[in-house]
Amino acid sequence: MEKYHNKQHRITASLSFDLKKNIELFDDIFRHCDDIIKRRFAIGKAHPTAIYLAYTDNMINRASLQQDIIKNFMFHMDDIPAAGQFEYLKQHALQSAEVKELLTLDEITQAAMSGNVVILVDGCNKALMLSLQSFPSRGIQAAETEVTVRGAKDSFTELAAFNKVLIRQRIKDTSLKMENMQIGIRSRTAVTVAYIEGIAQPALIREVKQRLEGFTIDGIFDVGMLEHLIETKWYSLFPQFQSTERPDKTASALLEGRVVLLADNSPMALILPVTLNCFFQAADDYYGRWPFVSFVRVLRYIAAFFAMSFPGLYMVVTGYQPELIPTSLALSFAAAREGVPFSILVEVIILLLAFELLMEAGIRLPSPMGNTIGIVGGLIIGDAAVSANLVSPMVVIIVAFTAIASFTIPNETFLSAFRVIKYLILFLSSILGLYGFILGIMLVLVHLAALKSFGIPYLSPFVASHLEKNHPLSDSLLKFPIFKSPFRPIYSVKENKRRLSGYDRHMKS
Amino acid sequence: MFTNCKISDRQLKKMLLFDLISISILIIPCIAARGAGKDGLLAIIAAGAAAVCYGLMMLCFCKQIKIDYISYSQNTLGKFFFFLFGLFYLVKFFCSAVFVLSLFTSVIHETLLANTDNRVILFWLLLVSVYYASKMMEVRARIAELLYYPVLIPLLLLFLLGFFKISPANLLPLAITGTTPVLKTGYAVLLTFSAAELILFATPSVSGADENNKFRRKVIQAIILASVFNLVVFVVVTGLLGVSGASSRLWSTISVMQMIEIPGGFVHRQDALMLSLWLSSIFTITSTLFYYLCHVTKSMTGITKQRYIMGAYAAVLFLIAMRPLNLEALAYYFGKYIAFIGFPQSILLPLLVILVGRFRKEADT
User: Fold this and answer.
1) Is the CB of residue B131 less than 8 Å away from at least one CB of chain A?
2) Interacting residues of B205 by C-beta distance below 8 A, sequence separation 6+
3) A293, A421, B47, B88: least surrounded by Cβ within 10 Å?
């Protein structure tokens, strides 16, 4: 098959004027492709003309093809002229909103495999494309990983076309641009770069496109793969993109001047640039009462700290500096450990790993079985392990608290970083106590301070506050009311910072 | 695309403050009490005033030099003399690194890890410092910005709590020691401000430093704040321990941390908590020394790979600082070096470079 393709896996063979040769070429290219339906038939009575149809089975609306196209070919094309049949067919035979002429064989084969019908006409070295796409899809469903109490419930699906609609529904602005690209020389995945012109930084858009065009790959099946290919600090545990399944979050990011990537077959959108602060923001933070939201935000930050440090802290106070805590508490820690044959480190690691295994098993199993795993693991094994003196009850509490703390972080990719970092801090604390604990925290801080997402410091707005002068902290650790954040965050162009104006102060009273 | 290669004057202030106080709050009470007894207070005030003048002098040099100090010196002095000039700085940064690493290792060993080998503590201290220093200036500035309040506020709170327990008899009467000991001690205290010379190296990284008066204000604010910290620390430490208590140990501040209790606290050992917060600031000074060691070495040798230079310095420093050194003796000799060579050179070398630069400019025109 390589005889027809170049290095970029594009078909270089060209169409001839002879339909018979074109059919032979088609048959050769689509050899053993049983999902491609091809049909040759003649139309017209006075001047019979041979035509050839090709499409992918179950990717088109077959009823429409039969009703609107084939029927027309069979019964209404009797007066087809002797010359100019191609134009005649284009004008009179095809009842479809989208009809296009295709000139290269590469375009034609791609169209046939993307839910379109292609029509070759004898005596012409080009084809007609008819859009009758009807993809199998699970439809728009409620968000599963970013559930909210208030706000829209819909989420992205695997079809980028649907996802674009969900965004456009929310931003009916001609400045919202959605540029399509094709990535993957074999998968030819449609990737969309969405941004709002005049708000997003032009240099950022250029950079994103440049990075997307900077590689050649066989196939892309999810935006996660794109993330791997275009991030700069590939070794970092922390995500440099925000992935979301929520259209409202995506639309809000676009209005902030950020760029969004959508890919076919992926129910997630990638938002960039990103800061650490973005991962602590949940969608309904913007719909709820601000004092409570602020309280929850603070709670999330504290929880994130505990998610990575709690086992390490336990190690410090039990193994090195028990005098840090009240004596009675230190004694109860020691009493709880009585009879446990392992060191504190081994004990903590056993339970942490057991928890990770349970979580992994719970995720991969269907939900009814997943619940069972939770009960078996959490209650039965946990209780049995304590009764058998394998672990102390205090460690069960520590691990459970760490898990709960980590689950308060609203972004799954981000929380997975904390799941790994806690082992580093635990290890350092186990060999150097409080000093090791501080070393671990410092290592994480230095790494985070050095991290950038498309030039934006990851720790912004807590650091480099000189880069953003307009209320940079109004949507960070605390969430102020919307009228307190009249300016867009750091991502947008300087000339278009204001997003709220004319807010009348007496409306507040 | 967004770019952020420069640091702000506010970030520089925070970095400078950490560089100035991370060692001084540990050793100033001892230095001042040993040298001038209760009049250590006056010595610290005098040193603070002198430090402001020193800072102004450095700012004046910055104004004259305008560009990167190292590049300016390289262009002005020529290869051979620049090599000699660089050696002075290398020796100073290297000796400072040995002293700082030994001091911190000993403090951590005594207060937190009595049963752990010093070499293990030193190894990890070096490792994190090298990692920290390997990042660019703006990363170090961001860390300083982030740690500023978490480190300073608890320290300040601690000293405020201690303030109510001090015995006035331990601090008064003043002006009984005589002028010479006060001035001598003032000079010894002033030496802890020699980190202020780093603004010469850092200025090109500050956005708008050459035309911005705010930058000068921030530098002076950092020096004044450091002086206030030193003063508060001395008052609290000497007020609680007395002159003999404050001068008995090089890092007597730690003893005070152990004495003060936070009311209703869940945490029983405040010194460990305070130390852990203060620990995060020590990496700022150790990484600064590493960073400038590499910066000067790169300019002198033309080696571009920073990681090799850092690795080599880390190995040598480890081999030197791992030896069981007498910290009191080390502090004595390091003090002598800074007093007679390190501090004077921080004024004379830039002055010399500027003068040579002027002569050359005049000769050219």
Assistant:
1) yes
2) B5, B6, B7, B137, B138
3) B88
